[in-house]
Amino acid sequence: MFGFKHTMNKYEHNTNAYRVIRTRLFSRVLQVNGPNHLSALYPRLLAQLDSSLAKELHNGRALNGWTLNADTLETNMALTHRSEGTFLPVAQTVRRLASKLMSIMFFGENLGRQDVSTFHYGHLNFNVTSASDEEFSSALLRYPRDIVRCMAAFQITPSLMSPVVHMFLTNRGEAMRLIQGRLFEYMGPGRSNWDEPDLTKRLTIMHNMTELADDSDYWNPELLSQSLLGIWFAASHQPWMNLHFIILELCARKEWQVSLRQELEQHLPLDYETLEQLPLLDSFIKETVRLNPLDTLAIRRKALEPYTFSNGTLSVPKGATVCVSAYNLMHNPETYPGPDSFEPARFLPDNPKDQQRKFTEISETFPVWGYGSLACPGRIHASLVIKMVVSQLLMKYNLRLKDENARTRWSWETFTMPYESTQFILEQL
């Protein structure tokens, strides 16, 4: 449907064969083991976020010609003479921050620094040169953008042209091949060469996928690396897009910056468990995503065989796509009174003793994560990335748009995309 066969290096995902095996592995790695691993990784993630944010500020531009003053990039940046702030491009900033955090969750801290060789596996040849950390990080950023461009192009070009379109738009799949080559090595023949401290390695998605698949007759390094490549796309693409719209809403609502900052400060010091339990932060994020879905359609399913619904009212031919309207479900006034209004406290329970319906919960009225057995298994990881970035920004800066009248998003078919040119200002508290 979106050409993943080409953008995931011939990965065949449109098949029911072994679906249970694949789903079981993903669920165990991401949902069963995920929370404990994320809790242990949190200090490393926080250190990476502080460092990455400092670098973003270092590369930003201060207002009124003021310059940034810092001894190193590893410390918080201070603005000389307390200038009016530093402005940064929203999309590029949150994309890089989210990618850095996700990279640690997936691969640890040292993967991009390894020297690798050429490996042969069946019909596959992986030519992996001594890619620097910057090259690998760049490929991780570039690959999701390659997929999105191809998804759009595949909708308007004949399927026979898809391989050519993919080759042209992705420089012959350069980012895809660099990433998968590295994954193939460390999930297969070069596993012992992965120079990551055991304490960190055992917390990563890549290590856990490999360990859990060791005794399987189905999984091999090729399938594992292809699958992890696909999970990386989902994990690295959706969080930064959500972050973009969350920052836009925060910039438009200064009073909610204050309220959320108060909640954060009341629960210091923050750790993984505390951050995930903050009710107002969770509700604000969920309401933002409800009103700013990345896709107005959800739960897409392609019929692999002719199918008739149990009530007999609708038949779906083989090859057809069935989906639901995420927009309509999340604007149903019976579920969401005043559905067009932004209510950041909408998801707080009326009775504080009642359990809150959290951002990561699967629901037919909130289909952002999909539904049923194929619901997104990595939503806990995505939620943590979003909450970490938002919380660190709010505790250190006031946020506002550089140009409040600037266009911030554009739409194509059912998708909503941010403008790359939108900038926001970080004013140090």
From TrEMBL:
GO terms, molecular function: heme binding; iron ion binding; monooxygenase activity; oxidoreductase activity, acting on paired donors, with incorporation or reduction of molecular oxygen
Name the InterPro entries on file: Cyt_P450 (IPR001128), Cyt_P450_E_grp-IV (IPR002403), Cyt_P450_sf (IPR036396)
* Sites where the protein binds heme: 376
Decide whether keyword tRNA processing is in the record.
Answer: no
Keywords recorded for this protein, A-Z: Heme, Iron, Membrane, Metal-binding, Monooxygenase, Oxidoreductase, Transmembrane, Transmembrane helix
Give one Pfam family, short name only.
p450
Q: Which cofactor does it need?
A: heme
- Which Gene Ontology cellular component annotation is one that this UniProt entry carries? membrane
SUPFAM superfamilies assigned to the protein according to its UniProt record, in alphabetical order: Cytochrome P450
Q: Which domain of life is it from?
A: Eukaryota
- Where found in the cell? Membrane
**Chief site of localization:** membrane
Q: What is this protein called?
A: Cytochrome P450
* Taxonomic placement: Eukaryota, Fungi, Dikarya, Ascomycota, Pezizomycotina
